[in-house]
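User: Could you go from structure to sequence for me? I need the amino acid at each position, not a summary. Structure tokens:
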């Protein structure tokens, strides 16, 4: 369950939604897309592997996005590496294929901001400001719900800009948040909702101004 709801899974869900809309419009061929997906997955997995090896000694976990005990240094390292990976992935998408559906260049860009905002959350924020302990967002990392919120915002804007039927993807994104809040959340539900809305809002704003 935790792997299914891991923050790094959300960009792939966005990409899967985008490819499905492309397939429905008959504007892509399967073989080139399949090769691009393989390239992109390998690139992202390599970045994640580098992140794990770089931050393991400090965070003692596979990802600082889901580790509330991660230090600021390890979070900055992961945010930097993931940002590069996301930007390169976006470049690969926009340069190697001419997509019909609007929003290709926003798939990974929208996930960069929550990655960096996550630095100022969790116990790393409590370390900087002890008086923030027990308050939002120092009680937990904001990345997990914010990433799901970004997926929701991405779905809303794709539907709005393209007039595509994204009701069920939107519903699935809400289900993902419900599952995370039920089985993985260790803090107040209101704090998780704040992070979720933060991810949704920034995703909509980025995609709305990127047209």
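Assistant: Here is the amino acid at each position, in order:
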């Amino acid at each position: 369950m935790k792997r299914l709801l891991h923050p790094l899974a959300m960009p792939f869900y966005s990409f899967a939604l985008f490819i499905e809309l492309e397939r429905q419009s008959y504007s892509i061929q399967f073989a080139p897309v399949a090769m691009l997906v393989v390239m992109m997955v390998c690139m992202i997995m390599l970045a994640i592997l580098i992140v794990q090896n770089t931050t393991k000694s400090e965070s003692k976990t596979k990802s600082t996005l889901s580790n509330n005990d991660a230090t600021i240094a390890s979070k900055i390292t992961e945010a930097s590496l993931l940002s590069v990976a996301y930007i390169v992935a976006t470049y690969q998408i926009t340069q190697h294929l001419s997509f019909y559906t609007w929003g290709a260049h926003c798939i990974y860009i929208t996930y960069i901001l929550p990655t960096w905002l996550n630095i100022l959350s969790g116990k790393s924020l409590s370390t900087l400001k002890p008086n923030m302990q027990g308050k939002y967002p120092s009680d937990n990392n904001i990345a997990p719900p914010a990433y799901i919120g970004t997926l929701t915002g991405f779905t809303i804007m794709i539907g709005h800009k393209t007039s595509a039927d994204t009701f069920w993807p939107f519903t699935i994104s809400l289900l993902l948040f419900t599952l995370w809040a039920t089985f993985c959340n260790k803090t107040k539900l209101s704090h998780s909702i704040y992070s979720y809305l933060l991810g949704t809002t920034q995703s909509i704003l980025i995609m709305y101004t990127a047209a």
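One structural detail worth keeping in mind: Residues 30-59 form the longest helix (30 residues).
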